[in-house]
Amino acid sequence: MTACAAACDECLRRTDLIAAVAGSIDVAWREKRGRTSRVLARPDAELIALDPSTAARYERFDAGRARARIADAGLTAVCRCEPVYPEQLRELPDPPAVLHIAGSLAAMPAGEAAAIVGARRATPYGLEVSRSLGRGLTAAGLPVVSGMALGIDSAAHAGALEALPVAAAPVAVLAGGAEAAYPARMRRLHTRLIEAGAVVSEMPPGFTAHRWCFPARNRIIAALSTITIVVEAATKSGSLITADLAMDLGRVVAAVPGPVTSRYSAGANELLHAGAAVIRGPRDVLDLAFGADAPAVAEPAPLVPLDPAQRRVLDAVERGQGTLAELARTMDESRAASRTLSELELLGLVRRGFGGRYVRCS
Amino acid sequence: MRSAITNSGFEFPQKRITINLAPAYLRKIGPGFDLPLAMAILAASGQVEAEAIADCALAGELSLTGELRAMRGALAVAQGAAAHGIGRVVVPASRAREAALVEGVQVIGVLALHDAVDILAGRREVPPLAELVPEAEAPAVLDPPDLADVRGHDALLPAIVVAAAGGHNLFLHGPPGTGKTMLARRIPSILPPLSRAEAIEVTRIHSIAGLHSGGGLVETRPFRAPHHTISPAGLVGGGPVPAPGEVTLAHHGVLFLDELSEFARSSLEALRQPIEDGRVVIVRSQRVMLFPTRCMLVAASNPCPCGFGDHRCHCSAADLSRHQRRLSGPLLDRIDVTVAVGRPSAQALRDQRAPASAVLREHVVAARERQTRRFAGLGVACNAQMTPRMVRELVGATPSALRLLYELHDRDGLSARGHHRVLRVARTAADLEGSDVVGPEHVTAALAHRTDAAPNQTAA
Questions:
Q1: CATH 3.40.50.450: does it fit domain A107-293?
Q2: Shortest distance, CA B393 to any CA of chain A (angstroms)
Q3: Which of A17, B140, B304, B398 has its CA 20 to 30 A from that of B63?
Q4: What residue spans in chain B does CATH classification 3.40.50.300 cover?
Q5: Distance CA B349, CA A320 (A)
Q6: Contacts of A299 (CB under 8 A, 6+ apart)
């Protein structure tokens, strides 16, 4: 833990105020049609005006007790008055007053970083791509930032954790308190992210997210990253808000193309149509981030050379022909194919899905 | 009763009649008591000599005119008589051939009440069976469905043969209209022929359930395909007078559950124990009944709610995991072999011609014989029934074969339970090849047919 990590009384007081008026901000946020900056950028006095009953609490605020609560939750707090506060966040019109960090402050990205965001309701395709981006980018040293939501977000984190231990620590930004896993079923992912990197939030420990907190969280994801990649988003997805915010900050916005017939990819495809960078894999992201200096992406090279039968079956599986019926015509071919599939699985090149369809591990 | 007796030319006694049915603790239901009751009345009123009906079991339903109607369970009655040392059994003529399957009793088939009286009193000869029910009247067995009829699914046959050879339950996973039902319906045709003891058991069950038309022994393995709206009692048996359920009717045959995810969870829960134990116990206040349920379970399901299951699938991961959760309930644990059924290509439909069931059945029979020898005296019939301990002691896996399993286990690709199931199937694969040891090639073959529990989404 960094010794100089600290938060000043003023910033802690502001954070406490925002938590206290969170319900009123919800109302104001809806009136402003989803632009949190117009609310969160206001000075303290205006926030108190949203709910005058908080004035007394604001006056009596005890910074010592707030610090104790933060320490009790096992968090580190750093405020925007501190030099260790992530520089990128200062570009926001409404930078968070305090960042509460579970895990290591040193894990906060300083240079290039990629946000991987997308729908909670994702397809297996989206999850696979997200996971492989998370893994590939982390392995190549590009930190991955996401929101730990169901679907694309958590797949990206899971992928990143698969590439550990490496220099690029994964970062999750939560809408509620950083000490608690949200959604709750991500408890294990939450713990592992804290061990490997950082889970951060602008809200104090114990705070339960209101609706406006999610787009507010998205602005932190966008600001922490130099590239925001949208993997699978429907046309009204929250991840498009992240892309908008990234655009406002002048950051690179990219998207993974999906089938034009899939509504789960409609938002991502629309971004591409509007000029976002096309992402086909980790390499495309690294090209965007580092240009000619891009580090090589480790291809999942087979450990042993494949024999012709294995190569043939692997090629077929890559083309989407992953069942015995698609790989073989006769009983003998089928017996041979089932053995070959198992060999490839043991080599870690394919994975048997539910119901017996094999897919390529990426 | 009264009209049956008077219409048969006898007199119905004009006094108060008390008939005691013993033992009293059994609930006695059914028209099969008509004939014995009538006979008792006739004997009590002196119209039939009491000696004439000694050492004789009777069963049958009387019509108003005194004719005997077909009845259920004639085989069970004859077996019961034999078990109690009763020498003669009187049943309706149409059921005589069925009852005659039991050795050690004389079966008397009769057409009407007065026939029975005449024969028992010795006024007429016992009619030979052949006269009553000519052999030809046994229902002509239609050509049983044969796997050679199925085109375009040759690649699935190894998995199906393995399942049949080891008695493994089978899961057919594929889009609608690809032939899952067609394949399942033909599985009995590659199972070994019924032994005589098995055939008698099946005949008895089907006779009790009223599914058997009395033509003698049932010789084909049953195939039962209950609809998914079936109740738990319909599936495993039950009712006020416990009747056998579908799983018992499928005894020694195949129970096919199409659209597994559509079955009520309670039905599938109820099925778990019978599938595992090979029998179901139904307890009623008066008595405990035991029905045998040794069948091969064949389940089928769509791969996902939209039905495509491949690149055309447009289900979300949440839809998929919900669908898989529905499937991976209690029964999937008991299914050793899973195979993905796809839509056959036009070329496969044109060119492929599956081997005839008889050819595949030879392999199955040979593999079953090896198993019978292995399990002699162990109370187990086939590889699928091996206990974990038998798996450890009898599979005979080589170290290199086991290493493969451990490797996959370490990679989270295989659960501990899955480990045993793969070894059972690998044992069958080795039996099909006539091999005593299970080598890596048998394990890799078995791995490609394994059943997985639904994966956790976004496993973190």
A1: yes
A2: 25
A3: B140
A4: 169-335
A5: 21
A6: none
User: So what CATH class is B169-335?
Assistant: alpha beta
Cβ of A339 within 8 Å of Cβ of B339? The answer is no
Chain A residues with beta carbon closer than 8 angstroms to that of B351: 329
CATH number given to B2-137: 3.30.230.10
Helix (H, G, I), strand (E, B) or coil at A358: strand
Q: Do A192 and B460 touch (CB under 8 A)?
A: yes
Peptide bond just before B274 cis, omega within 30 deg: no
Strand partners, A254: A229, A277
What is d(CA A154, CA B205) in angstroms, rounded to the nearest whole number? 55
Q: What distance in Å separates the CA atoms of residue A249 and residue A240, rounded to the nearest whole number?
A: 14
How do B88-92 and B106-110 pair as beta strands?
Answer: parallel
Q: How distant is the alpha carbon of residue B393 from its chain centre?
A: 30
Sign for the CA dihedral angle at B451, B413, A306, B442 comes to negative
Query: Residue A355 and residue B338: Cβ atoms within 8 Å?
Result: yes
Helix, strand, or coil (residue B56): strand
Q: How far is CA A200 from CA A3, A137, A181, A197, B403, in A?
A: 18, 20, 11, 10, 43
Q: Where in chain B is the domain with CATH 3.30.230.10?
A: 2-137
Yes or no, beta carbons of A324 and B155 under 8 Å apart: yes
Paired tokens of A1: 């833990």
The most confident of A227-231, B40-44, B216-220, B317-321, by mean pLDDT: A227-231
- Residue A332 to residue A353: CA distance in whole angstroms: 23
pLDDT of residue A36: 63
pLDDT digits (tens, 9 = 90+) for B144-161: 788 888 888 888 999 999
Q: In this structure, what token pair is assigned to residue B66? A: 């005194």
d(CA A275, CA A227): 14
Q: Nearest Cβ partner of A356 from B317, B340, B458? A: B340
Please name the residues in contact with B125: beta carbons below 8 A apart, sequence gap of 6 or more. Answer: B119
Consecutive H or E run containing B246: helix B246-249
Three-state DSSP class for residue A291: helix
User: Is the CB of residue B346 less than 8 Å from the CB of residue B149?
Assistant: no
Owner of token pair 């080599």: A347
Residue A173 β-bridge partners: A200
Residue of A nearest to B360 (CA): A331
> Hey, how many other C-beta atoms are within 10 angstroms of the C-beta on A164?
17
- Nearest-neighbour CA in chain B from A27: distance (Å): 31
How near does any CA of chain A get to the CA of B249, in Å?
28
B246-286 residue pLDDT tens: 989 999 999 999 988 888 888 888 888 888 888 888 887 76
Residues ≥6 apart with Cβ < 8 Å to B240: B284
On the 0-12 / 13-18 / 19+ scale of CB atoms within 10 A, B165 is buried
Q: Which residues of B262-295 are buried (b: 16+ CB within 10 A; e: fewer)?
A: ebeeebbebbeebbeeeebebeeeeeebebbbbb
Q: Tell me, what's the pLDDT at B460?
A: 31
What is the distance between the alpha carbons of residues B338 and B336, in angstroms, rounded to a whole number?
7
Q: How much is the pTM? A: 0.67
Beta strands in chain A (DSSP E): 76-79, 98-103, 114-118, 144-146, 171-173, 198-201, 227-231, 252-256, 277-278, 350-352, 358-360
Domain ranges of chain A: 107-293, 308-360
Closest Cα in chain A to B339: A356
- Which of B351, B447, B457 lies closest to A345 in CB terms? B447
